[in-house]
């Protein structure tokens, strides 16, 4: 038995070393850094809870929290609804794998496109002059000046760009879950005279409720820590209209070179994510018990 355990530890050692180097040690350093005034001078001077007090005293914190709540809340709701809609459409209504696969492949394009290329495409489409694609379409129907779409509708644009990259994953998960539902349930419902909406409400949604919970949790955690699309399209602007919590940590650490302060913002975000995970797991457990 000891020999077998020794072999297991031997095989696990490289993995544990890599995890420690790339995850554990950086996490410990981030926690330590959040209690320092580390800046461009790279002098480690501990300042206790000064960074955390600074977060709560910052007048922009309320706006950033509100932006984060709007961004995460709207994106999750829209993503889950669209995932369900496309999954039911391509799995229940379109039974031919050929056509449903083509549709799902189209949904995959935003997800597999590199973030920089994807964001540049959005900036090109929404260019503020008459050469912008959206402005060209707009000016053909209305005689007016070109619109700076990104400046006028920044949050709407980053939400749309983010949602489009999230649809494919949830749609694939939900489609697989719907395919696993026994056909006799659908046949029995049709024999009883149930309509399509009744079948969706009474058979499909109850059978995939755990998958819905998983996608909601996955998207929540991903969106709270996601800032790349916002960074590349609006950089948090104009002003701080699209500045979210994770992007604020990036700006403080790498733009303003306030590394200790940026680490403190990141640590607060990590704690929020942990609390949300615990709460969501408890809510899901209670729902499952019912």
Automatic annotation (TrEMBL):
Keyword tags: Cell membrane, Membrane, Transmembrane, Transmembrane helix, Transport
Subcellular location: Cell membrane
Transmembrane segments: 9-35, 70-94, 106-125, 157-178, 214-233, 259-280
Domain of life: Bacteria
GO cellular component: plasma membrane
Record carries keyword Transport: yes
SUPFAM superfamilies given in the database record: MetI-like
Topology relative to the membrane: Multi-pass membrane protein
GO biological process, one term: transmembrane transport
Residue ranges of every copy of the ABC transmembrane type-1 domain listed in the record: 65-280
Xref: Pfam families: BPD_transp_1
PROSITE patterns reported in the protein's UniProt record: ABC_TM1 (PS50928)
Chief location bin: membrane
Similarity remark: Belongs to the binding-protein-dependent transport system permease family.
Designated name of the protein: ABC transmembrane type-1 domain-containing protein
